[in-house]
Design goal:
The chain is of the alpha+beta class and 424 residues long. It contains 10 helices and 18 strands. Bound molecules: zinc ion.
Length: 424
């Protein structure tokens, strides 16, 4: 009965980011291309806003792009930019309006792009990578050298060239097909709720605060420094660049730590259960989510952590599920008794009914794991494998990618997991 493994053909999307080693003349080309993209975006947006005010409708991509040749005649400098990048920005603008119409309450109207915003342009095709010679071909601007820090898998679907902290980078998005075998293994729950760390039900911890608080202090200082500078002044621009560099450093350290931790969890466990952070933010009854800069720096990592876990688990044939975190910190993981008083302090949990004691975060992580397993069993995406009980219990994944499909899974055969699900 448990010999159900079906291999899944999966389309895997990957993104790579490399620092470009452009010549000064190329840097000027990129800045010009980014400027043209910004011009076209703003120009088209102004047109769309007028159109929207008058007709309460939006101009789609096809009608916008038909105006592009006219704009190129009127504004000759647009001819220097890669035309695909200009078309791409119109597509992006169209998408931004579509999102706005779909969720008008939550998503705002597309905004004009200012001179100080991020300089970037995207090329949907014509990009060639010459890995042997560490160079990249971009339409219009030609070959550019780059620091190819890791090998690129798959076919390049598009490239985004952007400037950050005074340097130019390229992000390549690739696609390839792979065969995934659903896994059998243990489940783990991860409590991401506290500002300082993640605690997993298997006892593993992620501590980021000590490493990042130094940068949080520096960012606060630089933020104050920035706010004292006069608007539009050169000093203000410099202060802004300093703050951006520190922020980039924080992002790099955090991303590195999260990659290591998520890799560990995915290697160890077939099923990973997390809190649903959107729900958590709405029900932050115990005020754990601090709105301080420190808190923001650390918390911002959790969405990224979930993204990393999801795609890594997908590729390994595992599962990630996000569960409603309500009361996971107040419930006893041994007997299920729920009481706010069970939680003695930030760290200490002692059940008033059965006397079970644990570290509060660990207790919550166990609850999160159990909640995730129950949900997956109900959805028939999981089966219990024979053998151990408790934390060492093994589960067989029947259908990977239950939640948050980063790469799209497509069964090669519609059995037997699907048939099982239909029979239920
Ligand atoms: Zn209890």
């Amino acid at each position: 009965m448990l010999k159900l493994k079906t291999n899944l053909q999966m389309l895997i999307r990957k993104a790579y980011r490399f620092r470009l080693r452009e010549r000064p003349s190329q840097a000027r080309d990129y800045a010009r291309a980014a400027g043209c993209v910004r011009f076209v975006w703003n120009h088209a947006l102004a047109l769309q806003r007028r159109y929207y005010r008058r007709f309460d409708k939006h101009l789609g991509y096809v009608r916008l792009s038909s105006r592009l040749p006219g704009w190129k005649r009127r504004y000759a400098f647009l001819k220097d930019a890669p035309s695909q990048a200009l078309q791409q920005t119109l597509k992006d603008l169209d998408l931004a309006w579509q999102r706005f119409f779909k969720e008008p309450g939550r998503v705002g109207q597309p905004k004009f792009k200012g001179r100080t915003g991020q300089a970037a342009f995207r090329l949907p095709q014509g990009v060639k990578l010459d890995a042997g010679n560490q160079r990249l071909f971009l339409p219009k601007t030609g070959w550019v050298r780059l620091r190819l820090s890791r090998p690129v898998d798959g076919v390049i679907k598009n490239a985004t060239v952007s400037r950050e902290g005074g340097h130019w980078f390229v992000t390549l998005q690739t696609e390839y097909e792979a065969v995934i075998t659903p896994r059998t293994g243990t489940a783990v729950g991860v409590d991401l709720g506290t500002v300082t760390a993640a605690t997993a039900s298997d006892g593993s911890l992620l501590h980021l605060e000590a490493r990042l608080s130094r940068y949080a202090r520096r960012m606060r200082r630089q933020q104050r420094c920035l706010s004292r500078k006069q608007k539009g002044s050169n000093r203000r621009l410099h202060a802004k660049a300093r703050l951006a560099r520190t922020h980039a450093r924080v992002v790099a350290i955090r991303s590195d730590a999260l990659h290591k931790y998520s890799r560990e969890l995915v290697d160890e466990h077939a099923i990973i259960c997390l809190e649903d952070l959107k729900v958590a933010a709405m029900t932050a009854a115990d005020g754990r989510h601090k709105a301080t800069l420190n808190g923001r720096i650390l918390n911002a990592g959790w969405a990224e952590m979930r993204r990393q876990l999801s795609y890594k688990a997908d590729r390994a044939g595992g599962l990630v599920i996000a569960v409603n975190p309500a009361y996971t910190s107040q419930s006893c993981s041994a007997c299920g008794y729920v009481d706010a008083k069970n939680r003695r302090s930030q760290a200490e949990f002692k059940c008033l009914a059965c006397g079970h004691t644990a570290h509060a975060d660990h207790n919550a992580a166990v609850n999160i794991r159990e909640r995730g397993i129950q949900e997956l069993l109900r959805a028939r995406t999981l089966a219990v494998a024979p053998g151990d009980t408790g934390a060492g219990r093994q589960y067989q994944v029947l259908r990977p990618s239950h939640v948050e499909v980063v790469a799209v899974g497509r069964p090669m055969k519609r059995e037997p997991a699907d048939r099982l699900a239909q029979a239920a």
